[in-house]
Design a protein that fits this description.
By secondary structure, the protein is mostly helical. Helices cover 44% and strands 5% of the residues. It has helices at residues 6-16, 28-39, 44-54, 58-65, 87-91, 94-105, 147-158, 174-181, 199-211, 227-244, 268-283, 305-313, 342-353, 367-384, 388-397, and strands at residues 79-84, 111-112, 118-123, 135-137, 140-142. A hairpin with a 2-residue loop joins strand 4 (135-137) and strand 5 (140-142). The radius of gyration is 36 Å and the shape is extended.
Length: 398
């Protein structure tokens, strides 16, 4: 059983101290990288170590260690060579690269060479489709490889060399990489890469600059506002819009002259006609100028994502807006929408008709139904003259 060094234990305490006292379990991921940095893989001793320092059981730690592919469960070579064989890289020759390396090294997927230098694996995607086919060595990229260049890279690694990746810093061993993934700086000379992005990554930007494509009003120097600042700005904008809204026109008691100079009719009808423009003004909303009828909604932070999703998919018939994105007001055969609250009433009726299950029986079971079934079974047995053994045999045949 591995006895971890004092340096590893000190680093483990430093990792755990990064998290709140009641959230120390969040330190499990970097701790697994830490034990992998000492042993080259996550051994049973490493699982036990993580469980002890975090107060977890080994099953909880093992469940996490077996979920993520970056945690190796058996001894791994100094250099993990991963070849992308997913769709894009495969079309460009990724499978040929992997097959050639497998034959050249004499190992298959997740196997290590006899000298313990290289572990080969095929990867489903390395997130570099614009550089395909690609392979990584300890997660540093070698872009646009073919079979011959890939063989050249692994031969140099086996001879003690450190080929320079296409993008990123100079190579390090898997254990050294695990230290970085645990959250500690790499102290090697030249460990920090200073290269920029490759040309395929910048291709979209080049085309945008060439054709003058940009986001309207985008200023890259605009700082990101906090929620409090955003709420304050929204409140100020709303107050400004309210102030700019025209005041409602009140009905005048004086007679209004018609087009021929005669007084307009007085009485209820006359007042109604006079007040009609005021009614139009009073019901106008700022959104009318844009033609949108979507009702105002609260800020997303006021509701949980589950509630917002449910309201979008199944809006209440009394408040849903017919043309709101993602909504559709249900109608009956006559084409009329149900009254507000019908959905809630139907839901309540369904809940009342389906009592929650108890601890001793599944949902929907009733003692009356069980007794009735037993009575019918007994009556059938008595009528046929068959005993319990015969009944069991008949049931088995059925």
């Amino acid at each position: 059983m591995t006895v971890f060094t004092d340096e590893t234990r000190e680093r483990a305490r430093e990792i755990i101290a990064r998290y709140p006292a009641d959230r120390s379990r969040s330190a499990l991921l970097p701790l697994l990288h830490l034990v992998q940095a000492e042993e080259g893989y996550v051994s049973p001793a490493g699982v036990t170590f993580c469980a002890e320092v975090l107060g977890l059981n080994k099953a909880q730690v093992g469940a996490v260690a077996t979920f993520y592919t970056m945690y190796k469960r058996k001894p791994t070579g100094d250099f993990l060579v991963s070849v992308c064989t997913n769709t894009m890289c495969n079309v460009l020759g990724g499978q040929e690269v992997y097959d050639t390396l497998s034959e050249h090294l004499g190992v298959g997927h997740d196997e290590t060479t006899a000298d313990g230098t290289i572990t080969l694996e095929h990867a489903e995607c390395l997130a570099a489709c614009d550089y395909g086919p690609v392979m990584t060595v300890n997660y540093d990229f070698f872009d646009g490889v073919d079979a011959s260049t890939a063989v050249g890279v692994v031969d140099e690694l086996r001879s003690g060399g450190r080929p320079m990746p296409t993008r990123g810093a100079r190579l390090c061993t898997l254990k050294e990489m695990a230290v970085q993934l645990a959250g500690f700086a790499d102290e090697r000379d030249g460990a920090v890469a200073d290269g920029g992005p490759g040309e395929p990554t910048l291709r979209g930007l080049r085309l945008a600059q060439q054709h003058g494509v940009s986001v309207p009003g985008f200023d890259p120097n605009t700082p990101i506002r906090s929620k409090a600042e955003a709420d304050k700005a929204a409140a100020e904008a709303k107050a400004k819009a309210e102030a700019a809204r025209p005041a409602p026109v009140e009905a005048s008691a004086a007679p209004v002259k018609g087009g021929d100079g005669a007084s307009a009719p007085t009485g209820a009808a006359g007042v109604a006609e006079t007040a009609k423009p005021a009614t139009t003004t009073e019901t106008a909303k700022p959104a009318d100028a844009s033609g949108s009828t979507t009702r105002d909604v609260k800020a997303p932070d006021d509701k949980s994502p589950q509630v917002r999703t449910a309201e979008t998919r199944q809006p209440d018939a009394g408040t849903a807006v017919p043309d709101a994105p993602g909504t559709k007001v249900p109608t009956d055969r006559t084409g009329t929408a149900p009254e507000a609250g019908d959905a809630r009433a139907a839901e309540a009726a369904g809940v009342a008709a389906n009592a929650p299950a108890g601890d001793g029986k599944p949902a929907g079971d009733e003692a009356g139904a069980q007794e009735r079934n037993l009575t019918e079974a007994k009556a059938g047995t008595d009528a046929d003259g068959a005993g319990p053994a015969d009944a069991n045999e008949t049931g088995a045949q059925k």
